């Protein structure tokens, strides 16, 4: 099963996150299938590759709660 979840990047006390499609059995920093977005909670910036996200959602990928909130804020589910 594939999930859309956050992968931590950046340095200490200055985290930024990549939104990735990743296998459920992989750890947080494990190998991802594809990078589909970027989230910076400090600057409150997001970049989303909407066609790639919609592709994975159509194939049955489940977003985590945090990623779901980010996608809902960006109104991705209106297109889905």
UniProtKB/TrEMBL annotation:
Pfam families: Ribosomal_S16 (PF00886). It is found in: Plastid, Chloroplast. GO terms for biological process: mitochondrial translation. GO terms for cellular component: chloroplast; mitochondrion; small ribosomal subunit. InterPro entries: Ribosomal_bS16, Ribosomal_bS16_CS, Ribosomal_bS16_dom_sf. The keyword Ribosomal protein applies. Keywords: Chloroplast, Plastid, Ribonucleoprotein, Ribosomal protein. GO terms for molecular function: structural constituent of ribosome. The keyword Amino-acid biosynthesis does not apply. PANTHER family: 30S RIBOSOMAL PROTEIN S16, SMALL RIBOSOMAL SUBUNIT PROTEIN BS16M. HAMAP family: Ribosomal_bS16. Belongs to the bacterial ribosomal protein bS16 family. This is 30S ribosomal protein S16, chloroplastic. It comes from Portulaca oleracea (Common purslane).
């Amino acid at each position: 099963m594939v999930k859309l979840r956050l992968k931590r990047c950046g340095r200490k006390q200055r985290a930024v996150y990549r939104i990735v499609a990743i296998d459920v059995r992989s750890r947080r920093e494990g190998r991802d299938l594809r990078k589909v977005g970027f989230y910076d909670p400090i600057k409150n910036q997001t970049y989303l590759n909407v066609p790639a996200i919609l592709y994975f959602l159509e194939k049955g990928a489940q977003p985590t709660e945090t990623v779901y909130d980010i996608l809902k804020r960006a109104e991705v589910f209106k297109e889905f």
